[in-house]
Every structure is written in structure tokens, then in C-alpha cells.
Amino acid sequence: RVAMRWRWSLGVDLTLLILLLIKLLILDLDIKTSGTGCVKIQKIECDNCKIETEKGTSVLQSIKSHKIDIRTNGGKVIGLGTLYGNTDIRATEKGSVNIEKLQGTSINISTEDGLLKTKYLYAETSSLSSVAGDILLGSIHGNTSLQTKTGSITVDSSDGSLKASTHHGTIDVYVSQLRKVDLKSQKGSITVKVPASLKAYLQLSGRKVDVSSEIQLKETQSASKDDHVTISGHMNQRNETDKWIKADTQNGKVCLKSQSWIQSVKLKSS
Ligand SMILES: *[C@@H]1O[C@H](CO)[C@@H](O)[C@H](O)[C@H]1NC(C)=O
Ligand SMILES: *[C@@H]1O[C@H](CO)[C@@H](O)[C@H](O)[C@H]1NC(C)=O
Ligand SMILES: *[C@@H]1O[C@H](CO)[C@@H](O)[C@H](O)[C@H]1NC(C)=O
Predict the structure, then answer these.
(1) Which of 81, 88, 137, 150 could form a disulfide with 168, with the two C-beta atoms 3.0–4.6 Å apart?
(2) Where does the DUF4097 domain start and stop, copy by copy (predicted)?
(3) Ligand 3 contact via 241 beta carbon (within 6 Å)
(4) What is the number of other CB atoms lying within 10 angstroms of the CB of residue 44?
């Protein structure tokens, strides 16, 4: 095993480009750039992979590590191929995160103003948050928690437990299979799309609640209080109490629509 430790500090105008084309077994990777210094890492396995940039872009391709730790204060974080390992990414100011595939036990990502985007997310526990940036996710698996203040939250397909909350943003989620799905917005609208065959208990509340006609809710109960409507009922089952979807918005509207998995794939690729 080869041990390497790098630490570079560069001036504002310098761009640092690190290309590791050979697959090295590295214990610790520790890279720091300043100004607009960029980092590019390809095909590497390491125990700890730590990268810190100011405005520079970090490009990571096919990384396998026990711990991937990335910080940027305004730069872009781009992941190509699979990033494999427990991951912690923090992008402040306008820093954005765009990753193709993430896989690990624990994954945490936060942005402030920048977009947070991932095509595939496989984790036991993941926690993704942004202040004003949008959270845009493809296919997610495991226990996921999403939070924004003003950014919108979009999930193309979720098959685990999902918790999403936003203050001003909208939420748009396709649930393909579920455990517990808990969606909350203060001011935004919530759209929940499900396959018509999904087994679930649903509780939807908002200024207005729209349930599309292809969805058969059974034992429906409806209550309204101060401009706030709550509709609850079962879809395709009655007894499985651990499978439920709750959507609650103070001032927005809730829509429940049916969508097939094929449609969700088509929409994703279009
Ligand atoms: C993610 O955040 C949780 C809660 O703060 C923490 O327990 C966990 O270790 C973090 N994971 C990583 C990979 O940093
Ligand atoms: C989600 O978390 C629960 C415990 O909180 C755990 O038992 C379960 O395995 C997790 N799900 C996945 C897909 O890892
Ligand atoms: C639901 O549970 C009740 C008893 O709690 C039982 O009588 C009924 O047959 C169950 N229904 C289904 C669809 O499993």
C-alpha cells in the first residue's frame, strides 16, 4: 500500500489539475486549493478522500473510499461514474453539487444557493439539504431526508422511507414503493405521483386537495378547518399501517396523481 498525503495552497489565478489515471491504493488523499484552483480525480481507491476548494470546481470520477469529504465555498462539485463510500459534501454560497451515482451507508450533502442534483442515490441513511437551491433527484433508495428553505424538491422515483420538508418551495415526488413518506411545505404545493396499484394509507392536507380520478381511495375521510382540507384513505389495502404517505402544506395545494413506472422512466430520459 502506498501512502500519500498532499496539501497544496495555490494563488488566486492558478488552476490545479490532478489526473490520476492509474488505480492507486492510497491511504489518505488530502487536497486543498485556493482561489479558482480546480481538482480532478479519476479512478482511485483510498481510505479517506478529502478535498477543499474555494471557487474552483472539483471533478471526481469513480472514487471508492471509506470517507469522502468535500468542501467548497462557491465552486462546483461534479461526480461522474460512481462515488462509493460514506460521503459528506458541503457547498456554501453559490456552490453546486451534481453527481451521477452515490452509494454508501451514510450520505450527507448540503448547499446554500446552489443546485443539489443526483441521478442515483443508494444509502441506508442520507440527508440532503439546501437553503435556496433546488434539490433534484433521480432514483433514490433507502432512508432519505430532504430539506430546503426556498428551493424546490423533485424526486423522479423513491422506493424507501422519505421525509421532505420545505418552507417556500414546492415538492414533486414519484413514489414507486414505500415505507413511510412524509412531505411538508409551509407555502408551496405538493404533488405526489404513485402507481395505481400502490398499497398505502394516505393523508393529504392543504388549501386544496386534488385526487385524480384513476386513484381509488377507500374509506375516505374528509375534514376542513380554517381554509385547510384534510383527506385520508386507503389505496389497495387496509391493514398495513407501516406503509403510508402524508403530505401537508399550510398554504399550498396537494395533488395526488397516478403514474406508471414506465412513465417515470420516460419523463426522466426526456
Ligand atoms: C451525516 O450526518 C449524521 C448526522 O449529523 C452523522 O451522524 C453522520 O456521521 C454523517 N455522515 C457522514 C458520512 O459524514
Ligand atoms: C432505514 O432505517 C432503518 C432503521 O432506522 C433500517 O432498519 C433500514 O434497514 C434502513 N433502510 C435501508 C434501505 O437501509
Ligand atoms: C384487516 O384486519 C381485520 C382485523 O383487524 C381483518 O378482519 C381483515 O380481514 C383484514 N383485512 C385484510 C384485507 O387483510
Answers:
(1) 150
(2) 93-253
(3) no
(4) 21
User: Amino acid identity, residue 225?
Assistant: K
d(CA 30, CA 50): 5
From ligand 3's centre to the CA of 222, what distance in Å?
23
Ligand 3 neighbourhood includes 238 CB (under 6 angstroms): yes
Cell numbers placing 28: 489518505
Supply the pTM of this predicted model. 0.86
> In this structure, is the dihedral angle defined by the CA atoms of residues 75, 50, 5 and 79, taken in order, positive or negative?
negative
Give the closest residue (by CA) to ligand 3 atom 2: 239
pLDDT confidence of residue 22: 43
Query: Using one digit for the tens of pLDDT, what is the confidence trace for 129-151?
Result: 999 999 999 999 999 999 999 99
